[in-house]
Amino acid sequence: MAQVVDKFGRPIRDLRISVTDKCNFRCTYCMPKEIFGDDYVFLPEDQLLSFDEVTRLGHIFASLGVKKFRITGGEPLLRKNLPDLIERLANIPGIEDIGLTTNGVMLGRQAEDLYNAGLQRLNLSLDALSPDVFGEMNGRGTNPQIILKNIELAKEMGFQMKVNMVVKKGVNEGEILPMATHFKERGITLRFIEFMDVGNDNAWSFEKVLTKKEIYHMLQEEFELEPVEKDYFGEVAQRYRYKDNGVEVGFITSVSESFCSSCTRARLGSDGKLYTRLFASSGFDVRELLRSGKTDEEITEAITGVWSNRRDRYSDERTEETARKRKKINMSYIGG
Ligand code: SAM
User: Minimal CA–CA distance to 27: which of 241, 333, 331?
Assistant: First the structure.
């Protein structure tokens, strides 16, 4: 099958798969505990896509040009038997790379099985080294030491790893230099993520965004950096390296310098909907197609139709007003 492209000529290369809408954290910028309290109703199990369904879709997406899967959530390590899914996805012809995004709390117990199942890459989310700052941000008081220990363990096991830090103005900018120093010394790439207007519940505004430019200036006070060329079309991070030891550091600049024009990413939500952008207001119900007896050809045709009609470039056009008025889907469904 020929590579499918959208209205702006962007191919489909990556698929993010959210395997659960549940999370063990209540990060203030994602699933604040005031909204996601004890009585919050998550998706019942039968509304999540089964591993058979995800694998079937994996084959279909691979036939359309997808080369890379990333498993996410919610917290993906909460999904039972995840290594089983990884193994199935890793065996799909044409798939070159599988990654997992996790908060890392449960990684200690699962890392070995995931590695043996074929998982090569991990993105660990960690927003601070200070127990107070991190405990406050994750909404559960969880100590970062647990995650730091699991990062070391996964590194020793052979995983390729990056650490992602969401930066919120007035909350954790004091953690930028300690985090940079810590991961530079350990040879692990740290990426700073601008606080984004995803979800309805995180009281986002431009004022709370610390931009790449501001973070970069802070780093420059301490370190000598040089830019690194992009590796491939659609790479989202702006990359730099520390001149003295060559370790990389990156920025995900979704707000201040959007990268819609090279976005090759689709998202399969934990609700079985297909989203063609992170900032989507609605999705295309693939679960319904799977469960109503459609053939692979029919599903392939439907997905091709969705992608080839894609004309999203929300971040390129974002204003404070569009950010406020837009109907949003929570990150726990759509997968970060
Ligand atoms: N639970 C997993 C984790 O923590 O990595 C996977 C899902 S989480 C939604 C994926 C990533 O999205 C995390 O790095 C998280 O920090 C980031 N994220 C969530 N809400 C965000 C926001 N409003 N702005 C920027 N990044 C956000």
Answer: 331
Token pair, residue 263, equals 């976005």
Ligand 1 atom at minimum distance from 197 CA: 23
Name which residue sits closest to atom 23 of ligand 1, judged by CA. Answer: 196
Nearest CA among 249, 125, 240 for reference residue 177: 249
| More confident: 217 or 335 | 217
Sequence letter at residue 317: E
Residue range 77-122, pLDDT digits in tens: 999 999 999 999 999 999 999 999 999 999 999 999 999 999 999 9
pLDDT of residue 185: 98
Residues 85, 55 contacting (CB under 8 angstroms): yes
| Distance between first and last Cα of the chain | 29
d(CA 52, CA 67): 19
pLDDT digit string, tens, across residues 300-310: 999 999 999 99
d(CA 100, CA 72): 6
Count the neighbouring beta carbons within 10 Å of the beta carbon of residue 13: 20
Nearest to 202 by CA among 25, 24, 28, 22: 28
- Residues 200 and 183: their CA atoms lie apart, in Å, by 32
Ligand 1 centroid, distance to 269 Cα (angstroms): 14
CA 61 remoteness from chain centre = 18
Q: Which pLDDT value is given to residue 315?
A: 73
Local structure of residue 281 (DSSP, 8 states): S
320: enclosing H helix or E strand:
helix 320-325
Residue keyed to tokens 């203030």: 28
Identify residue 110 by its one-letter amino acid code. Q
Which residue shows structure tokens 């995803």? Answer: 198
Pocket-testing residue among 29, 190, 197, 333, ligand 1, by greatest number of atoms within 8 A of Cβ: 29
| Count of H-run helices and E-run strands, the chain | 12, 12
